[in-house]
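Honest question from a wet-lab person: if I give you the sequences of every part of a complex, can you actually get the arrangement of the whole thing, not just the pieces? Trying it with mine:
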Amino acid sequence: MKQRLNPRVILLWRLQAGVRMLFPLLPVVIGVAVLSRESVGDMLTMFFAVGILGLSGLKALLWPSLVYRFYAYEVREEDLWIGRGVLFRRETVIPLSRIQHVDTRQGPMEQLFGLARILVYTASGRVPDGGVPGLELKVASGLRDQLARVAGKDDGV
Amino acid sequence: MSVDPGGWRSLHTLSPVVNLIPQIWATIRGYWIVLVAVALGGDVGVQIGDLVILLVFFFMGFGRSLVHWLTLRYRVHEGALEIRTGVLNRRVRILSPDRIQNAELVRNPFHRVSGLVELRLETAGAEVETEGLFSALDFAEANRLVAELDALRRNSSSRAIPAGDQGVELGEVLVQMGWVEIVAHGLSSRRAGVSAILLAVGFEVFAQLEPGGSEIGSALESLTGPMIVAGVLAVFILGWILGLLESLFAHYRYRLTEVDDRLVSQMGLLTRRRVELPIHRVQHIRIDEPLLRRVMGFASVYVDTASGAGIPVEGGQPTASEAVIPMVPKSAQLALLRRLLPQLDVDLRSAKLQPAHWKALPLALFGAGVGWSFVQLGGFLVFGRWGFLLVLLLPLMLVGAWLDWRFQGWTVTGNVVVSREGFWLRRTTLVPLDKVQAVHRIETPLLRVLGLAIVAVRVAGPRVFLPKMTRQKSALCLERAWRRRAQATG
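Yes, you can. This is the full assembly:
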């Protein structure tokens, strides 16, 4: 049965998106605001900059819910299925026997929310072939152990 | 080579000397612009400064060779190959014989004169550097080491493979190339890029020589039709000659043999290469048939393992394949493929491949149109009003896109995934199902509107995209593209 992520991940993603957005954009908006007090043209520039900031904020607010809606995973008899993506949908199937190793990761904000993500590696490269974010730590550990138990029976190399 | 009491062996004493010329060549290639500056630019003081910089880079390279020779020690210990390197940063690598994907013996002219060889042992996932690199070993020692590791892998007694350069070879010869094949390969190599560069350089030189000005347009005006045709022909002939020379250097005395469960390929005029790879390690096979080569009745076959190392062709880029079979006659293709991939259960000559969906055609035509508009824009920028001649490219590009779409195909049989693309350069890819690492299904917004999807199959190394298909078929493909089955399915 397809499993969903922990709903707390939506808030986590919103915060992460907000932080990512504010660091580069806020100084620009402040800079434009300071420099554009005198002419109408510069005021338009400021409105434009504030508009971009607003749209980015809106995206940071709404987008995570959509990402959450389309993210799912399922450990099946012989493989791991992961589905994700809002505009660019992507489904991945990783045969359990091909899994080389499984990582569990928790960034500072994920720790704050008690969440973790797992990354699944096969022999196909140095980047993970699949990953599931926004799992409760206990669930992530259980999934990691479950995958690690069946991993590498036939690595296909 | 010396052996110490712990069984540690070292590189041959001549190692730094043998590496000297390649090192100089690498310096020249890497810093040619500095060399040009030394030769042409600045006053004497500046030139000496540039030369000093160049010498510093050269001696750094030579120093690395020296340190490599002084510090590299290796031994076969407790069933594995141990390699120790480094002075400040000591590094010990342990390579398990059953993880070695392929072994390559390289002999440049200096190796050949001194009776030495460079041995490269590749393991899975070694994308950045060769895990086991021995820059100069005695030829017999290199063979002994390869045989010893192979014996450990098989857990049986050691048996050396006779060196191909000695003219003796056990095993069955699968493919060999004579002069006819070398010439045919050189003539059918894709030289369009080289020809385009030569043409551009030719235009530039001509424009500079034109007394009336530096604009290419005015230079073109003084050319007569036959002169242009002759010039373009000359450039293409030059491109062919370059291809011929490259083929001669890279594939001279090419021979592919099967020794027990391994493929052994040997080739090269100045630098001889011998690559050994176990057949069960084959991850991916690519069959390239450019139109001209197809008309001649040949194809090129590229065999990949999980090492992803690739063979640098002399004077060219790495081929990104561990074994290259440059010219395979059409009649011998199936037999060869069955030797490379014993589980192959499809005859590519008669197999009915699933076509790309018809809705993929407008996308292909649209892509060609967008590509042409960029070319046209560039044409106006470079050639001025003469750029309008590039309008003639549009129908050609549209027909090319249609042909590419028309001749795509895919199938998943009981044992392999087959994908075919392209018309001018027909490329067929075979992936054994038991090597598939992951399968991805991708839907972009536009593809979703059209009800299409793309399936990408990943093996240890490359990724293979199948032609665009319906969502239903792609879902089926996602589930089946890695499971071996008794029955073939479409």
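Two things worth pointing out. Chain A has two domains: 3-69, 72-150. Residues 40-70 of chain A form the longest helix (31 residues).
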